[in-house]
UniProtKB/TrEMBL annotation:
InterPro entries: ARM-like, ARM-type_fold, ARM_At1g04390, At1g04390-like, BTB/POZ_dom, SKP1/BTB/POZ_sf. It comes from the Eukaryota. Coiled coil: none annotated. Pfam families: ARM_6 (PF26522), BTB (PF00651). Residues 679-762, 812-893 form the BTB domain. This is BTB/POZ domain-containing protein. Pathway: Protein modification; protein ubiquitination.
Length: 1007
């Protein structure tokens, strides 16, 4: 052991030649490096001969030690001195010395590699940044390469802040942009372009603030995209990487999509089979960046998207042309990126049909099992053990994507979907069979101990894919998945289910509920949904307290004690640059941020829907248990939770007589059901009774209840113009309904139309099913029939924004007019008013605002006026009216686009929310006031320089909360403002606020 240690130390010694070169190096460096009293060492020599001697000594020494990376620790002291010398020498005016020094810097950084992070490099970053614009572009290129090394290798947050500050002060980003533009214009060399593009890519990836100056340069982006199509592969790769880096900013991605057709054609060209593999990979990565959210993807899928799908299919299946039995190693990176891109199947769209028509099921099967001669060409699977050997013999990194793609494809199939069968081979059926049998074997064999860790990470995508196929809207896929899963589970009996329930009981019902094993908890939850969805296991689960387990899981999740997101248990679904993104446009998967809670709701729905017992009997004999479950489900079916959690909560609540999706807007609209003064339609019932309703609400939510004749009667917009100055009068239209309509059911249906939800007894379900179907309320009808939730449909909460569109104009009975806006006038095609205004509806305003309710009922002159002046700006009025109709107030987020706006525009945007806060306080609209204050506080934190003017504006309309918020940012500047005279533009009250705040801060600091 001792001999081995001595031998190791001996091998780590420098060679005699290296020692000699090191001595010469330090002799040269000592001529220029000086030590100061504070212990800092700096290069302090401008003699060209000394600088040249030092640079040559460094070059020779670096060449010597570069051949043996193990020598890095032995020359650490020398490296520190070289960095000090290079920082000083790079400020030299001698071009020959600069050229050599820049080259040495690059060589040294390449030698250091990751160990570069151990050294202080901020001074070097400054020197190198200043040289990016040097007239000798060879020097600039070397400096760009050196900067790329530093930024790529140094990952310390404090160093990042310091580095960006230097790059910003030296205007490095614009310098790089100019160099790239020079190449496009034919001035610079290809080497310069590639090195500058590489540096810009790293800067964009590391520093979010660098992105706006680049993506806002429309000419540069257009020129780069044009260059990419025409250029050789090295340029195409560089441009694609730059676009990917820009798309890390959500606003930047949106900017790139402004010319979506051109961008799609660029990507389609770059992913063609004829392109070099590296170009195709970078094009797929760009695809993933610009399609990472449903919002971004929805822009592109409306364009010519077929070539993108064809490119994905070509990359996923192109390897088969080589007659290989599995994906060749050199093609794995391309296939992986194509599979990553194919995860766009997680959103609805026409691209799903493109994938199916391109035989995606055949390609997925080939990726899964390789050469299909290994597996039956019919639906009869191999024995489970042999099947697992075949599947796990292939490329493991690809499998999670196969399962995810299969699951998403199944999710968005419609009810009548049937696969295209090529001859006797049904690839989809084989895929479903493989998934079910392998998933069950993994579960039953105790996969956490039997399978390797690489297999463990793939269990969740596989089990989840089986679940998504079971719940598919396609009857074909759903029935096949349930059949194959039942067949796979049958030989194992009830033993796995019993073990599963025992583990969940000990985890969630035991006396000591400790920390959760995330992956194990998720897998157990999915397995329980499997069993709960199959009729043959329902009684066993209920008898073994499965419902109580689910209730305990739901309670614990609601206490935020078991919150597990999918990203914490899967690696493949994480975006590679997620932590570097800004201006997020990211969309969660359908499970939301808590997949255990989601799966628990799914399992509960399966048990209740399949059981012969009444829902209340399944939950428990204790009435309080039932009520607790209802309360928990109602809490989950609120605005605070993700749409798909609400979906299953609502469907579970339907078994207890609660239907729909409650919202704050719906709660406010509940008052309108019993409002008769503003009602303009009277529904005459068969029993002689009548119901007064409001045509605009029916038009927005259930137009089939309005006869076509009424729409024609309302449909002349010129009436709006003719009666602008007349008093408001409400004519009533009487509509006689069919004798076959159940009156009680109709009243309940109207409650749903007005509020988005209702509670009903079982005996009224039958007529409600008929009525909802004939009224075209498909989602309500689906819920009333208690079918399985359609995941692809999402949830439809109450919304009246359709009333603000042209179809709602004929029903308008009031005009809201704003204060004069900043110049201009409104050219309204529906009336002669030139002031900025909105055509609105009294019943919506009446239900959502105490002020309007009091006004319309007051009998005062304004109560019957057709035009009501609202003392806020046009932008504020539009946002306020939007809230009345949708229940949502648009939030201004301090993203890159807004942060870089003109200061006057930023000020105006914030003043809009100050006015909203003021009118909300005046009209008692607490929600609007709270959201407005949140926006103001967030934006002031991001842009404190807006505080002074906003403080004055807020004080003028007595918004003292805003004044105090602005003062918080100004208080530390009080002495400076006093000395510069900035306080003179404030009145005495505001000066007193700042003075008092400053005194309190000073006292706090002294204490």
């Amino acid at each position: 052991m001792k001999h081995s240690k001595q031998k190791k130390e001996k091998t780590r010694k420098l060679s005699d030649h290296a020692i000699t070169l090191r001595q010469r190096l330090h002799q040269a460096l000592d001529l220029g490096i000086k030590s100061f009293d504070d212990g800092v060492r700096r290069w302090r020599c401008s003699d060209a001969e000394v600088e040249g001697l030092a640079v040559r000594a460094m070059s020779v020494f670096v060449d010597c030690i570069s051949s043996d990376p193990s020598q890095k620790p032995l020359v650490k002291e020398s490296i520190v001195d070289m960095l000090v010398a290079l920082e000083g020498i790079l400020h030299s005016r001698n071009e020959n010395i600069l050229r050599t020094a820049a080259d040495v810097t690059v060589k040294l950084f390449y030698f250091l590699g990751d160990s570069l992070a151990q050294y202080r490099t901020s001074d070097l970053i400054l020197a190198l940044s200043l040289l990016l614009s040097f007239q000798d572009k060879k020097i600039a290129v070397s400096c760009a390469a050196a900067l790329t090394c530093i930024i790529k290798k140094v990952h310390v947050p404090e160093a990042d802040k310091e580095s960006w500050k230097i790059l910003e002060e030296t205007d490095a980003v614009n310098t790089i942009i100019n160099a790239i533009q020079d190449y496009i214009n034919g001035i610079q060399t290809l080497e310069c372009f590639l090195e500058m593009a590489s540096l810009l890519k790293i800067v964009l990836q590391r520093f979010p603030y660098s992105r706006y100056p680049v993506w806002s340069n429309t000419k540069l982006i257009d020129d780069l995209q044009d260059l990419c199509i025409k250029a050789d592969p090295s340029i195409a790769i560089a441009v694609l990487q730059l676009c990917s880096a820009l798309a890390l900013c959500g606003d930047g991605a949106i900017k790139l999509l402004e010319n979506g057709e051109h961008l799609l054609s660029l990507i389609a060209c770059c992913i063609e089979n004829s392109q070099p593999r590296r170009v195709r990979i970078e094009a797929f990565i760009l695809c993933q960046h610009i399609m990472r959210s449903e919002r971004l993807f929805s822009v592109l899928v409306k364009l010519q998207f077929l070539p993108i799908v064809q490119g994905i299919i070509g990359a996923m299946g192109g390897w088969r042309s080589s007659s290989c039995q599995k994906v060749p190693a050199d093609q794995v990176p391309l296939v992986v990126e194509a599979c990553r891109t194919a995860l766009i199947t997680r959103w609805a769209g026409v691209h799903h049909s493109y994938f199916w028509k391109s035989s995606i099921d055949r390609i997925l099967l080939d990726l899964l099992v390789g050469n299909r001669s290994k597996i039956s060409r019919h639906a009869v699977p191999l024995p489970p053990k042999e099947l697992m050997d075949v599947i796990y013999d292939d490329v493991s990194i690809i499998r999670p994507y196969i399962w995810d793609i299969l699951g998403w494809l199944a999710t968005y199939c419609d009810e009548t979907f049937h696969p295209i069968v090529d001859g006797e081979e049904n690839c989809l059926d084989i895929l479903i069979s493989c998934a079910c049998f392998v998933a069950v074997e993994s579960m039953c064999e105790g996969c956490y101990s039997s399978l390797s860790s690489s297999h463990t990470s793939q269990l969740e995508p596989l089990a989840r894919a089986v679940l998504l196929m079971m719940t598919s809207a396609s009857k074909y896929i759903s029935l096949k998945a349930r059949h194959h899963l039942s067949e796979a589970l049958r030989p194992h009996g009830y033993r796995p289910l019993e073990n599963l329930l025992d583990v969940l009981k000990s985890t969630f019902l035991g006396n000591a509920c400790g920390a959760l094993d995330n992956l194990k908890t998720v897998m157990k939850s999915i397995y329980l949904v499997w069993y709960s969805s199959l009729p043959q296991y329902k009684n066993f689960i209920v008898e073994k307290d499965g419902v109580q387990v689910l209730s305990a899981i739901i309670k614990r999740c609601l206490c935020n004690d078991a919150c597990i997101s999918r990203l914490t248990v899967t690696c493949h679904s994480q975006h590679r640059y997620e932590k570097r993104m800004c201006c997020s446009v990211y969309t969660e998967d359908l499970e939301g941020g808590d997949i255990v809670l989601y799966y628990s709701l799914q399992a509960l729905f399966g048990l209740i829907s399949l059981s012969d017992l009444a829902p209340k009997e399944i939950i428990g004999s204790n009435r309080s248990e039932v009520q607790d479950m209802i309360n928990n489900l109602q809490e989950l079916n609120s605005d605070s939770f993700s749409p798909h959690l609400r979906l299953y909560s609502a469907y579970n609540l339907s078994f207890f007589g609660f239907y729909g999706y409650p919202t704050k807007l719906g709660k406010r609209m509940e008052k309108a059901i019993s409002e008769y003064e503003l009602a303009d339609v009277q529904l005459l019932l068969s029993d002689g009774q009548s119901i007064d309703v409001h045509s605009i609400i029916l038009m927005s939510r259930c137009p089939s209840l309005l006869p076509p004749g009424l729409l024609c009667c309302k449909g002349n917009p010129s009436i709006v113009d003719q009666n602008l100055v007349q008093k408001y009068e409400m004519p009533k239209h009487r509509v006689r309904l069919s004798d076959r309509i159940d009156n009680t059911a109709l009243r309940k249906l109207l409650e749903y139309v007005y509020t988005g939800c209702f509670q009903v007894d079982e005996d009224l379900l039958s007529p409600l099913k008929i009525l909802s179907k004939h009224c075209g309320l498909k989602l309500l009808s689906h819920m009333l029939h208690r079918k399985h939730p359609i995941l692809s449909s999402g949830i439809h909460t109450i919304d009246f924004t359709a009333a603000l569109e042209p179809a709602g104009l004929p029903f308008s009975d009031v005009i809201l007019e704003s204060n004069a806006t900043r110049g201009g006038y409104q050219n309204c095609s529906n009336c002669s008013l030139s002031t900025f205004h909105v055509h609105a509806h009294r019943i919506i305003l009446w239900a959502n605002c105490d002020y309007f309710r009091a006004l319309f009922q007051s009998g005062m002159q304004d109560s019957s006026s057709r035009i009501i002046k609202v003392p806020i700006c046009w932008e504020a009025l539009v946002k306020l009216v939007g809230w009345f109709y949708s229940g949502t107030l648009p939030r201004l987020e301090p993203r890159c686009q807004w942060k870089n706006m003109d200061t006057d525009q930023q000020q105006h945007d914030l003043q809009t929310y100050v006015e909203l806060s003021w009118i909300a306080e005046l009209w008692f609209i607490d929600e609007v006031r709270q959201v407005s204050m949140d926006v103001i506080l967030s934006c002031l934190k991001s842009k404190p320089n807006l505080s002074l003017n906003l403080m004055k504006f807020a004080a003028n309309i007595s918004q003292w909360d805003v004044v105090q918020a602005a003062a918080t940012h100004l208080v530390p500047l009080y002495p400076q403002m006093r000395d510069t005279g900035d306080l003179e533009q404030l009145d005495d009250i505001l000066i007193d606020i700042l003075r008092t705040g400053y005194m309190l801060c000073s006292q706090g600091a002294s204490n």
